[in-house]
Amino acid sequence: MDIQTIGKINKETKKVQSDFSKFSLALLFVAVVFVWTFTTHGTSDNNIFLILGAIFGAYMAMNIGANDVANNVGPAVGSKALTLFGAIFIAAIFEAAGAFIAGGDVVKTIKNGIIDPAYFSDPNVFIWAMAAALLSAALWLNFATSIGAPVSTTHSIVGGVMGAGVASAGFAIVAWGTMGKIVASWIISPLLGGIIAAGFLFFIKKKIIYKKDIISSAKKFVPILIAIMAWAFITYIMLKGVNQIIKINFLTASGIGLVAAIGIYIYVKPIIAKSSDKLSPDRASVNTLFNIPLIFSVALLSFAHGANDVANAIGPLAAIHDAVLHSNIRGSVAIPLWVMAVGAIGIVIGLALYGPKLIKTVGSEITDLDQIRAFCIAMAAALTVIVASQLGLPVSSTHIAIGAVFGVGFLREWLHTTEKVHLIETREKFKKDKKELQEYNQQLDTLIALEYKSKNDYEQIVLLHRMIDDKEELVKNEKKEFKSAKNVELVKRDAVKKIIAAWLITVPAAALLSAGIFFMIKGIML
Questions:
Q1: Would you call 278 helix, strand, or coil by DSSP?
Q2: Residue 325: is it exposed, middle or buried by C-beta count within 10 angstroms (0-12/13-18/19+)?
Q3: What's the confidence (pLDDT) of residue 416?
Q4: How confident is residue 109, by pLDDT bands cut at 50, 70 and 90?
Q5: From CA 140, how far away is CA 146, in angstroms rounded?
Q6: What is the DSSP pairing of strand 332-334 with strand 106-108?
Q7: Could you give the 3-state DSSP secondary structure of residue 248?
Q8: Are the CB atoms for 84 and 356 separated by under 8 Å?
């Protein structure tokens, strides 16, 4: 056995050991949840489904952490504004904080009003349906993560609830109007995210990157962009986080955000000016001015995600808990602290153990990202939610973030194509200039060949030399330009196709899986 083969075996062995360690830690968390639920609710009637629900909830929470959180941190990691470890560390803290602080004391047991609880006459059937919904959504998320496809966890649980609901009470139980809005969000979310992200990137390129004095442009516009980001994120946090604790409307939230943004603009403007003076006049240097805003975006997006999406894991679990303890079905229930802990801790564990795969997908496997592009994606994530919520449009945070990545990538392709057209025009100009250069040389040769030259002839010779030098430099530069034209695709088409396909089948796949699991549970119990 040669050394190369031994090296490959050692590498694969380490990979297997790493995968086994991750699985063992995930299994340990599930075991702790099982022991806690059994010891605290072991004497309750129908406690077996509460225990199973807790296990499924823990599994679901870990899959949310593994798949959904990547949308918040992937661009910052892909742009190298943060290391993978740093991004996971920050996201873990703020995901947990969002879940515990602003996760809400009450959640709807049926996510987004997809099915009507009134159709359940038997609490046991309701419990089976919620258990099936949790497990099916978790299994689908697990599969999506394994193939590197970021999908909507909200859509996963919606599909699970719908499938179990139809299996238990027929198609009449489904609120088809709400389902229509969810289908619409498949188109609305990525389009809005992509348009907003591309718009910001186009603005930055035109106002900063393409300017001759890039440093002066950065001093002028970067503080404005940071202030806009501050307004967007503070408003976003108010609406999606603080609103869970204290009811607050859009005008109040945006007003607070605006005041804070003005203060931040005044604070960062001299800092940006001082930092810019130390930079070299190129894009790579200007990129560094966006590092700190990106770190804040990871923290704030993670907080808002923890506050909102923890309900995807613990909503059905809270419903099962309430139905088991009270033997009836209610539209909304209080969340016990231990149920909230299962969701919050599970998301953090899933992020730490299995999040890197999707973080790399979002950060680098769709299109190349730098700090400016990542900044535009973060802006789109916050602004799209704000705009959509005020217009009453259904959106998915996952679809927004990935749509923003697509938007940035496709704008780069469009700009490249536009530049390529310019280069084709330059090629024609090159031909014309080259012909003029030949004519100048011919005129010069004719004048030099004259045996007797007048003063005007000598002046013309000097002028022709100068014109020839200028024209040669111009032709040289034009030649370089059109030789650099290339046909490129800056967005990886295979990744786009895979992700869109996963989006389209998330709800039906989770629904079919949930229906199958419900019938299996029903067959065992009856």
A1: coil
A2: middle
A3: 72
A4: very low
A5: 10
A6: antiparallel
A7: coil
A8: yes
Spans of all domains in the chain: 3-416+489-525
pLDDT for residue 482: 54
* Joined tokens for residue 312: 């995807």
Residue 467 is predicted with a pLDDT of 75
Give 390's Cβ-side CA count (13 Å radius).
Answer: 13
Instruction: Name the residue among 187, 525, 473 with its Cα closest to residue 517.
Output: 525
Look up residue 43 and give its DSSP letter.
T
Identify whether the C-beta of residue 388 lies closer than 8 Å to the C-beta of residue 403.
no
> How far apart are the two ends of the chain, measured CA to CA in Å?
59
CA distance 492 to 45: 53
Q: What tokens appear for 455 in the block?
A: 């003063």
Six-digit token pair at 316?
A: 């059905």
Query: Length of the chain in residues, anyone?
Result: 526
Contact 295, 90 (CB under 8 A): yes
111: closest CA among 162, 147, 72? 162
DSSP bridge pairs for 115:
174
**Residue owning tokens 């090629």:** 427
Neighbours of 268 (CB within 10 A): 20
| Single-letter amino acid code for the residue at 38 | F
State how far the Cα of 297 lies from the Cα of 306, in Å rounded to an integer: 14
Residue position matching structure tokens 């609710």 = 41
Q: Count Cα atoms within 13 angstroms, Cβ side, for 430.
A: 16
Distances (CA, A) of 233 to 239, 297, 479: 10, 8, 47
Q: By the 8 A CB rule, do 334 and 106 touch?
A: yes
> What pLDDT is attached to residue 430?
57
| CB-based contact 157:316 (threshold 8 Å) | yes
Distance CA 438, CA 432 (A): 10
What six digits make up the tokens of 284?
Answer: 């790579």
Q: Is the pLDDT of residue 112 over 70?
A: no
- Does residue 1 have a pLDDT over 70? no
Looking up tokens 């200007």 gives 286
Per the CB < 8 A criterion, the answer to whether 150 and 398 are in contact is yes
Phi, psi dihedrals of residue 107, rounded to the nearest 5°: -130, 155
User: Looking up tokens 């046909």, which residue turns up?
Assistant: 487
Contact 429, 401 (CB under 8 A): no
pLDDT digits (tens, 9 = 90+) for 213-270: 899 999 999 999 999 999 998 988 888 767 667 788 888 989 999 999 999 999 999 9
How far apart are the C-alpha atoms of 461 and 471, rounded to whole Å?
15
